[in-house]
């Protein structure tokens, strides 16, 4: 895998680590839950268990991407790229489910899509 593709794998992994922190560790803060279109404390209390669980999905995707790069070789890179494909798919589902989340979806799916394309062509 090219170095530039690896850079985008790292960007995607770090982004998903940050989302893990927001969803699983910081979700009680109004400034955090409002990023996810949650309006108030009552809605946040209902969404908190889902956000906590979803944060761990993001953590595992990040670990797959970053761990695959660290492991290296064909198998490690395959794991990293599979994680990027899952991230890209989740971003597409996000925009399909709520058009207001276009910026978040682009942030979520952009780097892993670039990693996949660059890994395929370089």
What's a quick, concise take on this entry?
84% of the residues lie in helices and 0% in strands.
Computed structural class: mainly alpha
How far apart are the termini?
8 Å
Morphology:
elongated
Strand content: under 5%
Count of separate DSSP helical elements: 5
Rg over alpha carbons: 15 Å
- Would you identify the regions where 5 or more consecutive residues have pLDDT less than 50? none
Mean pLDDT: 97
The biggest beta sheet, please? none
Question: What is the helix fraction of residues, given as a range?
Answer: over 70%
Count of beta strands = 0
Order of helices and strands: HHHHH
Would you give an account of this structure?
- The protein is elongated, with a radius of gyration of 15 Å.
- It is mainly α and 122 residues long.
- It is 84% helix and 0% strand.
- It has five helices and no strands.
- α1 packs antiparallel against α3 (41-71) and α3 (41-71) packs antiparallel against α4.
- The N and C termini lie close together (8 Å).
Pick out its properties.
single chain; 122 residues; 5 helices
Give the SSE layout.
Elements: H1 3-25, H2 30-33, H3 41-71, H4 73-97, H5 102-121
């Amino acid at each position: 895998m090219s170095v530039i593709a690896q850079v985008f794998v790292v960007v995607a992994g770090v982004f998903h680590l940050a989302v893990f922190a927001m969803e699983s560790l910081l979700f009680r803060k109004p400034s955090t839950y409002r990023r996810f279109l949650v309006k108030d404390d009552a809605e946040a209390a209902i969404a908190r268990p889902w956000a906590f669980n979803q944060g761990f999905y993001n953590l595992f995707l990040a670990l797959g991407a970053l761990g695959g790069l660290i492991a290296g070789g064909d198998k490690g890179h395959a794991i990293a790229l599979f994680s990027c494909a899952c991230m890209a798919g989740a971003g597409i589902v996000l925009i399909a489910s709520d058009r207001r989340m276009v910026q978040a979806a682009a942030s979520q799916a952009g780097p892993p899509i670039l990693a996949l394309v660059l890994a395929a062509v370089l």
